């Protein structure tokens, strides 16, 4: 395992106080139906919010296709202004499993979508051109069948990272991959494919991703070395267009099935990583958040 400058700072189960102003607003889609699972994923930018409804049916009889709703905040609160649907709806495609929103660009992951007769997954790119319009089906070159491409997304400006945590890779079957794209002004262009170091079992590399500037953090929560499903976090840096693995982070107090990296967040030199099965103070599977700096 590579060692570098990121070190464990703290871990905790967080209990957050209620906001002083309390409950502000609840909203639902204009065409909501039973079992839609509205609110499954969220992405926000300024006064705009993107919300997925994983069980929505954009076309009758196409079950659990999914949809994403655009809300904008104004004097009367949050108002639905648009609905995003895939151009090729399918049963159970998971459209809306992951979302990203920045300015006039919206990305919607559909990790069960079919491409070339294989359930590889697709990321749908939308752009606000008056109305929100699908502009591209973003694909992962080399992703395997059942690879779950689009399971995780992270967008920073004109750079996008997409996780495919069950794709076969050189590291092993079902081990996972991450694809990096740059926006040309009209299309998303694949510029890099990343994979984890060899592990004893499939590590779900790309289960979570976090991108900021020239740094990319990838969670691999089922990575095992001497401890089963302890999890790993991979840190990459971009120099002159080349993504280089600079560090692999593990929990120094890891126990089996902790699953470090189930979720990751990145802000400057701080990395936050979820461990939803970690035992804390004798409480089994209480869960924790690790902070590395």
What tags apply to this protein structure?
mainly beta, four-stranded antiparallel sheet
Arithmetic mean pLDDT: 89
- Sheet with the most strands, sense and barrel status: 4 strands, antiparallel
Count of DSSP-assigned helices: 0
Overall geometry: globular
User: Proportion of β residues?
Assistant: 35-45%
Oligomer: single chain
Strand order, largest beta sheet: 1-20-19-18
Distance between the termini: 18 Å
Uncertain stretches of 5 or more adjacent residues? none
Helix content: under 10%
SSE order, one letter for each helix or strand: EEEEEEEEEEEEEEEEEEEE
Structural class designation = mainly beta
C-alpha Rg (nearest Å): 19 Å
Number of strands: 20
Structural commentary:
- The structure is a single chain.
- With 293 residues, the chain is mostly beta strands.
- 0% of the residues lie in helices and 44% in strands.
- The protein contains no helices and 20 strands.
- A hairpin with a 2-residue loop joins strand 4 (67-74) and strand 5 (77-84).
Helix-strand layout with pairing:
Elements: E1 8-12, E2 38-45, E3 48-53, E4 67-74, E5 77-84, E6 98-102, E7 105-110, E8 122-129, E9 131-138, E10 152-156, E11 159-164, E12 177-183, E13 188-194, E14 208-212, E15 215-220, E16 232-239, E17 242-249, E18 264-267, E19 270-275, E20 288-292
Antiparallel strand pairs: 1-20, 2-3, 3-4, 4-5, 6-7, 7-8, 8-9, 10-11, 11-12, 12-13, 14-15, 15-16, 16-17, 18-19, 19-20
């Amino acid at each position: 395992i590579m060692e570098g400058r990121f070190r464990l700072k703290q871990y905790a189960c967080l209990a957050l106080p209620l906001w002083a102003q309390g409950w502000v607003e609840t909203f639902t889609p204009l065409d909501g139906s039973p079992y839609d699972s509205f609110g499954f994923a969220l992405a926000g930018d300024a006064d705009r919010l993107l919300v997925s409804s994983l069980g929505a049916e954009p076309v009758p009889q196409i079950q659990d296709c999914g949809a994403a709703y655009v809300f904008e905040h104004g004097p009367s609160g949050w108002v639905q202004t648009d609905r995003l649907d895939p151009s090729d709806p399918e049963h159970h495609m998971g459209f809306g499993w992951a979302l990203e929103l920045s300015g006039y660009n919206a990305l919607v992951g559909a990790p069960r979508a079919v491409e070339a007769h294989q359930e590889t997954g697709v990321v749908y790119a939308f752009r606000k051109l008056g109305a929100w319009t699908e502009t591209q089906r973003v694909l992962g070159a080399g992703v395997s069948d059942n690879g779950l491409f689009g399971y995780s997304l992270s967008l920073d400006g004109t750079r996008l990272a997409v996780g495919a945590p069950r794709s076969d890779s050189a590291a092993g079957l079902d081990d996972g991959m991450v694809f990096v794209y740059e926006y040309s002004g009209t299309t998303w262009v694949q510029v890099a494919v990343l994979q984890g170091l060899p592990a004893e079992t499939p590590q779900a590399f790309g289960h979570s991703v976090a991108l900021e500037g020239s740094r990319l953090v990838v969670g691999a929560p089922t990575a095992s070395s001497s401890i089963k499903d302890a999890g790993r976090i991979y840190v990459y840096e971009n120099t002159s267009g080349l993504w280089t693995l600079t560090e692999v982070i593990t929990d120094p107090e890891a126990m089996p099935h902790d699953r470090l990296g189930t979720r990751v967040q990145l802000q400057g030199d701080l990395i936050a990583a979820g461990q939803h099965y970690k035992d804390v103070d004798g409480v089994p599977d209480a869960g924790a958040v690790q902070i590395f700096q």
